[in-house]
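User: Could you go from structure to sequence for me? I need the amino acid at each position, not a summary. C-alpha cells:
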C-alpha cells in the first residue's frame, strides 16, 4: 500500500533556506561549493520546492531557529503533522494542534517572503560564484 501511495502521490519537500547559510563558510570553500551544487541539482526535481529567503527578510516570522515540519494528508481527511526542533543535546517533537498550527503559519510566512523558485536558483548560483573566486 505504501509503494502504491508513493506512486500515486509522491512525497513533496518544501524548503526555505536563509541566504546566510549559503554565504557563511562552514567546512571550507570546497564543502560550500559541493553543497550548493547539490541544492541546485535537487531543485530541478519537480517534487522539491527550494526557496531562498534573502538577507534582510529573515525577521519576518521571528522563529528564532530552524524547524522541520513533517506531515501527510491521505486525501480522505486524515492528516498528520509533527514539528521537529533540533536542540543542542536532543531533539524535540511537537504534535499538539496549536503548536503545529503556529509552526505551519510561520512556515507559510517564511515561504511567502522567500524569493520565487527561479530567483532562488539565481541566488544559489551567485553564492556559488562567491565561493569560487
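Assistant: Here is the amino acid at each position, in order:
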Amino acid at each position: 500500500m505504501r509503494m502504491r501511495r508513493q506512486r500515486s502521490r509522491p512525497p513533496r519537500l518544501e524548503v526555505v533556506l536563509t541566504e546566510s547559510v549559503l554565504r557563511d563558510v562552514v567546512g571550507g570553500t570546497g564543502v560550500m561549493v559541493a553543497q550548493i551544487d547539490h541544492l541546485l541539482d535537487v531543485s530541478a526535481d519537480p517534487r522539491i520546492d527550494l526557496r531562498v529567503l534573502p538577507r534582510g527578510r529573515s525577521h519576518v516570522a521571528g522563529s528564532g531557529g530552524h524547524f522541520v515540519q513533517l506531515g501527510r494528508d491521505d486525501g480522505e481527511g486524515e492528516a498528520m503533522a509533527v514539528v521537529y526542533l533540533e536542540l543542542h543535546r536532543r531533539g524535540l517533537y511537537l504534535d499538539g494542534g496549536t503548536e503545529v498550527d503556529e509552526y505551519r503559519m510561520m512556515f507559510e510566512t517564511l515561504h511567502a517572503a522567500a524569493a520565487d523558485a527561479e530567483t532562488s536558483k539565481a541566488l544559489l548560483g551567485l553564492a556559488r560564484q562567491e565561493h569560487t573566486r
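One structural detail worth keeping in mind: The helical segments are 2-8, 20-23, 29-42, 97-113, 117-132.
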